[in-house]
């Protein structure tokens, strides 16, 4: 997903139509129109790719209350969001906000976010903290996934304004260079290397957590809305209960759930049970393309094959990347804070210490991101998993 756009689109799951509402998800703003008897779907694939599906009608608007066909009694709408990355966090934030605006005390909103990450929410906006092993125990910190984002659409700029106001995000004012000189025509994640660039304060991973914590806190005094975040929890199967028109989630938590647990350990600890609400959910939002693939994929949420097929057709393959984290004992004299390279191996490099909230790191910490082509060639040449045990190479759980 390009955070510069933070656009979110949906894939329509055609055969599930009993509950009749239409939820449109677009541009990071879950502008949701839930209309009785109007359509088709209650499982959604949200992803930031601009070209993933055509944009939804501009007049989409959120009205969770309309999910209920009853106009007299209070009803509860429950939504499960699979994925606690920036898309899932923004979806939860937007749903809660829209509920607060549009609620007429006739509907309650329950949002449950499920994320399988070993180190909490954040997804690919991931940061890694470690300490030096030379006895000084100095802190090392790296953003080893998403490095920065831009805000290029009015919708996302609106969200960003709030994040800046809350001090979740600040502008990253470093010395940026490219191998072609200052103003790069080399794109990084489809973004021109032209400021302003934004980063989450104290590491990219803090953004999703801050956003979700804020929603939890804002809904804690509101009896009509609730957000719960299930970390270390993998959704492995969606099951439609035709008698209640709800989706039940089956999955695992803990070691069996983490995406990098060796397969044999995951299998040995796999005790799949119903997770989240026992009675299920009215709608599911999938935020990771991988979770929308079929069973063969480790992150698969067990979506019906007809749905997985549509995602495959639209998205195609995902690209791999390598991130290398290096801490230097002595300050380097590298004359930039971040750079993109016109190189077949190295795509981007960034110095953690130049990012807001990480200036006081004692060691100079750098993350270097490879080109997708290099990562693909290397993986093809040297498999990353032991074919028999499923262990990942290198498997360094202590870092
Ligand atoms: C090395 C690297 C560098 C990047 N640099 C940039 C950059 O500088 N700028 C930029 O804009 N973008 C960058 N990107 C892309 C950016 O990080 C992603 O587009 C963005 O973080 C995606 O957010 P997301 O919430 O859509 O998905 P994700 O962050 O992938 O979140 C999805 C979450 O869902 C969870 N999940 C999946 N399946 C299941 C399941 N079945 N059950 C439970 N949980 C599940 C995953 O564990 C994950 O936590 C970079 C990506 C990488 C890998």
How would you sum up this structure in a few lines?
The chain has 399 residues and is α/β, with parallel strands linked by helices.
Explain this structure:
The longest helix is centred in the N-terminal third of the chain and has 17 residues, at 86-102. With 399 residues, the protein is α/β, with parallel strands linked by helices. Helix 1 (86-102) runs parallel beside helix 3 (205-220). It has a single domain, classed as FAD/NAD(P)-binding domain (3-Layer(bba) Sandwich). The strands form 6 sheets. Strands 1-15-2-3-11 form a 5-stranded parallel beta sheet. The protein has a 5-stranded mixed beta sheet with strand order 7-17-18-19-16. 18% of the residues lie in helices and 24% in strands. The chain binds flavin-adenine dinucleotide.
Write the layout of secondary structure elements.
Blueprint (H helix, E strand, L loop, with lengths): L42 E3 L29 E8 L3 H17 L4 E8 L12 E5 L7 E5 L10 H12 L3 E3 L4 E3 L8 E2 L2 E2 L5 E3 L4 H16 L4 E6 L2 E9 L4 E8 L9 H6 L4 E3 L7 E4 L18 H11 L7 E6 L9 E3 L5 E6 L12 E7 L1 H10 L18
Parallel strand pairs: 1-15, 2-3, 2-15, 3-11, 7-17
Antiparallel strand pairs: 4-5, 6-10, 8-9, 12-13, 13-14, 16-19, 17-18, 18-19
Helix pairs in contact: 1-3
Bound molecules: flavin-adenine dinucleotide.
The site of flavin-adenine dinucleotide has 39 residues, from α1 and β12.
């Amino acid at each position: 997903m390009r955070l510069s756009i933070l656009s979110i689109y949906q894939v329509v799951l055609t055969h599930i139509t009993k509950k009749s509402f239409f939820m449109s998800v677009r541009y990071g703003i879950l502008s949701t129109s839930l209309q009785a008897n109007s359509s088709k779907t209650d499982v959604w694939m949200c992803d930031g790719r601009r070209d993933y599906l055509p944009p939804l009608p501009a007049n989409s608007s959120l009205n969770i209350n309309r999910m209920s066909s009853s106009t007299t009694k209070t009803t509860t709408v429950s939504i499960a969001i699979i994925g606690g990355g920036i898309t899932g966090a923004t979806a939860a934030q937007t749903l809660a906000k829209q509920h607060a605006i549009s609620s007429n005390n006739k509907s309650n909103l329950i949002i449950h976010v499920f994320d399988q990450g070993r180190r909490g929410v954040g997804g690919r906006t991931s940061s890694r903290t470690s300490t030096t092993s030379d006895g000084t125990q100095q802190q090392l910190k790296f953003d080893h996934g998403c490095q920065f984002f831009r805000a290029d659409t009015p919708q996302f700029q609106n969200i960003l304004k709030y994040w800046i106001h809350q001090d979740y995000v600040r502008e990253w004012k470093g010395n940026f260079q490219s191998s072609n000189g200052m103003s790069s025509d080399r794109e990084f994640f489809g973004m021109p290397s032209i400021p302003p660039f934004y980063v989450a304060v104290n590491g990219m991973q803090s953004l999703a957590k801050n956003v979700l914590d804020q929603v939890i806190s804002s809904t804690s005094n509101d009896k009509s809305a609730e957000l719960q975040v299930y970390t270390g929890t993998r959704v492995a199967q969606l099951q439609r209960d035709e008698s209640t028109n709800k989706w039940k989630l089956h999955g695992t938590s803990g070691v069996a759930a983490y995406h990098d647990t060796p397969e044999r350990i995951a299998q040995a600890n796999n005790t799949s049970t119903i997770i989240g609400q026992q009675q299920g959910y009215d709608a599911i939002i999938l935020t990771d393309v991988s979770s929308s693939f079929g069973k063969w994929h480790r992150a698969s949420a067990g979506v019906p094959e007809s749905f997985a097929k549509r995602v495959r057709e639209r998205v195609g393959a995902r690209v791999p990347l390598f991130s290398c984290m290096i801490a230097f004992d002595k300050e380097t004299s590298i004359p930039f804070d971040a750079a993109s390279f016109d190189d077949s191996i190295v795509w981007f490099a960034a110095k953690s210490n130049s990012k807001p909230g990480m200036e006081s790191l004692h060691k100079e910490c750098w993350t270097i991101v490879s080109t997708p082509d290099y990562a693909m060639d290397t993986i093809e040449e040297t498999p990353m998993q032991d074919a028999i045990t499923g262990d990942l190479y290198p498997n360094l759980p202590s870092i």
